[in-house]
Specification:
The structure holds two protein chains of two kinds. By secondary structure, chain A is of the alpha/beta class. Chain A is built from three helices and five strands, in the order βαβαβαββ. Classes of the chains: A alpha/beta, B alpha+beta. The interface between A and B is large, with 39 and 44 residues.
Chain lengths: ~100, ~160
């Protein structure tokens, strides 16, 4: 691997403080290549992840570990126009998006 | 940005939370990691206008009582580059995204510091990240709060 992001796992540690992620319906806005999405799914969340960049979504789909496939759904979408039902998520995550 | 936060609020269930994770308004520190020791090479010179605008948007929705801040924490996040090429690629992406002017000087410093010691040295970019947890406001009286539902279990030492 050419780049390792957050090898000390500080991000995961901080996420664990936020809530018990198990079976939480989570919207990951601006997921990029899915790095944080995978971390959330590993914590037990059911993640709907969106990003406006279709290429990044394709990359995220390709790199998603098979054992997490049932917990993650990727789609192209914008933060300003979510096109998702009202009151349908337990947590919304803006990952480097605002 | 305010519109994005309003959309997030719309799709959130009552008493649920929004997590805002992004870099703090601080420059990235770039250095060399060798035999477990970190030596600083320099700091990036990015602009912070978008981050300040994001902070204003968050302040706006808090002021409008659309959300309430539950807690805020700040922590370090490292990017560890195995090669100079990987570091150069990261800097290039940063420049293209509009965050930086040319940083050839920093790439040259990294090149000089790792020359002849490629296997032993790693280039590290270190950023401070801020995580804010906001709970959705404006729900029915008598409903449980975000804390009672098990969100944001403990404040950290850097709560504001």
């Amino acid at each position: 691997m050419r780049v390792r992001i957050d090898p000390k796992q500080n991000e995961v540690r901080a996420l664990k403080w936020v809530t018990d992620w198990r079976l939480k319906r989570v919207l990951d806005v601006g997921c990029g290549d899915g790095r944080l999405t995978v971390r959330l799914a590993r914590l037990g969340a059911l993640v709907h992840a969106i990003d406006p960049d279709g290429k990044l979504i394709r990359k995220a789909r390709e790199s998603l570990p098979k054992h997490l496939a049932s917990r993650v759904r990727y789609g192209v979408g914008k933060a300003e126009d979510l096109r998702l039902p009202d009151e349908s998520f337990d947590v919304v995550v803006f990952s480097w998006t605002l | 940005m305010v519109h994005a936060l309003s959309e997030a609020r719309r799709v959130l269930k009552p008493n649920s939370i929004l997590v805002d994770l992004r870099p703090a308004i601080e420059h990235h520190h770039v250095g060399i990691l060798r035999a477990g020791r970190y030596r600083e090479l320099g700091t990036t010179r990015e602009r912070f206008d978008p981050d300040r605008a994001a902070n204003r948007a968050v302040a706006h929705v808090l002021g409008k009582r659309l959300f309430r801040q539950e807690w805020r924490t700040q922590f370090e996040c490292d990017w560890v580059f195995a090669t100079l090429g990987a570091f150069r690629e990261w800097i290039s992406e940063f420049i293209q995204s509009g965050g930086l002017s040319s940083h050839d000087w920093l790439v040259r410093r990294a090149d000089n510091a790792t020359r002849g010691r490629r296997g032993e040295s790693k280039i590290v970019a270190r950023a401070a990240l801020v995580m804010r947890v906001l709970s959705k406001e404006g729900t029915c009286h008598g409903e449980r709060t975000a804390n009672q539902r098990g969100h944001a279990r403990r404040p950290t030492t850097r709560c504001s």
